[in-house]
Amino acid sequence: MKILLTSGGTAVPIDSVRRITNMSTGTFGSKIALEFLRLGHEVVFMKAKGSKSPLSINIDLKHKMLSVSEYQTWLHSVEKYTDKYFEYEYTTYEQYAEM
User: Fold this and answer.
1) Which residues contact 94 (CB under 8 A, 6 or more apart)?
2) DSSP structural state of residue 72
3) Beta strands 12-13 and 19-20, pairing class
4) For residues 44 and 37, what is the distance between their CA atoms, to the nearest angstrom?
5) Residues 6 or more apart from 7 whose CB is under 8 A from it?
6) What is the pLDDT along the chain (99 residues), one digit of tens a residue?
């Protein structure tokens, strides 16, 4: 099955300075996408710029270094899904609607 998911906040400009947006980080959408990938489905993931991605890795280098085994686990999961995962990024609602 082919799954289309959108995730993250969307910004709509009011004028050249202001915009209306929401604070969504994309965490929930990323988790849903990853579960569909684990089930063997093809995922088209549209995400707001700066929001989370299901195959990204978040590291706080001030508190923890990524071990070799953690990196290898992450890399293996990314390689496993590359043929079934397609990601597109947008900044504004207009870009989102155009996609």
Assistant:
1) none
2) H
3) antiparallel
4) 10
5) 24, 26, 28, 29, 30, 33, 45, 46, 47, 48, 51, 52
6) 999 999 998 888 889 899 888 888 898 999 899 899 889 999 999 999 989 888 875 555 555 666 677 677 767 777 788 889 999 999 888 888 898
